[in-house]
Design goal:
This protein is mainly alpha-helical and 90 residues long. It has a single domain, classed as Methane Monooxygenase Hydroxylase, Chain G, domain 1, CATH 1.20.58.1000. Helix 1 runs antiparallel to helix 2 and helix 2 packs antiparallel against helix 3. The longest helix has 37 residues. The chain is elongated, with a radius of gyration of 18 Å. The mean pLDDT is 92.
């Protein structure tokens, strides 16, 4: 979990720098296509962060709910995942 946390924080730090870079590009009236290329890279990086967090959730939170044998806890974790997938598909 700790390695995953460090990877996630590292990626978020890079994302922060990318967003600041795009803001400067806009301030400096850079070519729209250059800015859009950077926003596409940011979108991809956000998906990477989401993947790491989802993997962590599955490996720890969901696994813990399964191992608990508690149907209510299992249902709650399942419902969380379904809710996330529904939001992502909008």
């Amino acid at each position: 979990m700790k390695a995953n946390k460090e990877k996630t924080l590292d990626r978020l730090s890079r994302l922060e720098g990318q967003v600041r870079g795009v803001a400067k590009m806009v301030e400096n009236d850079r070519y729209c296509m250059d800015i859009l290329a950077q926003t596409a890279a940011i979108r991809s990086a956000v998906l990477g962060v989401e993947k790491l967090i989802l993997e962590n959730h599955a490996q720890h939170c969901v696994e813990s709910a399964i191992e608990s044998g508690d149907p209510e806890e299992q249902r709650a974790k399942f419902d969380e995942l379904i809710g996330l997938l529904q939001k992502a598909s909008r």
